[in-house]
Amino acid sequence: MAHHGLGTVGADLPAAYESTLAAEMTAHTVILARSMGKKVIPMDAAECAHLREVYLATYKPKAA
């Protein structure tokens, strides 16, 4: 799938769509920051893992 753009996955179509929106919003934020001359500093792996856990605990429903 070279040169076909973004590909996301999810447990179902809505989850995959949410992943797509998250990636698109992140890309948009990076583009805006760079267009203002700001340096974009990536988060380290530990910080990313922590934020993922917070996101999953806060926004993802638990299985019943």
Count of extended strands? 0
Shape: globular
**DSSP strand (E) fraction?**
under 5%
Order of helices and strands: HH
Mean pLDDT, as a whole number? 86
Question: What class do helices, strands and sheet pairing give?
Answer: mainly alpha
How many domains in all? 1
- Biggest sheet features: none
Bin the helical content. 55-70%
Rg from Cα: 15 Å
User: What's the quaternary structure here?
Assistant: single chain
N/C terminus separation: 37 Å
| Uncertain ranges | none
* Tally of contiguous helical segments: 2
InterPro entries: Aldolase_II/adducin_N_sf (IPR036409)
Folded structure, characterized:
This protein is mainly alpha-helical and 64 residues long. It has one domain (13-59). Helix content is 59%, strand content 0%. The protein has 2 helices and no strands. The protein has helices at residues 13-35, 45-59. The protein is globular. It starts with 12 loop residues before the first helix and ends in a 5-residue tail after the last helix. The mean pLDDT is 86. InterPro entries: Aldolase_II/adducin_N_sf.
Short description:
The protein has two helices and no strands. The chain has helices at residues 13-35, 45-59.
List descriptors.
Aldolase_II/adducin_N_sf, mainly alpha, 64 residues, 59% helix
Topology of helices and strands:
Layout: H1 13-35, H2 45-59
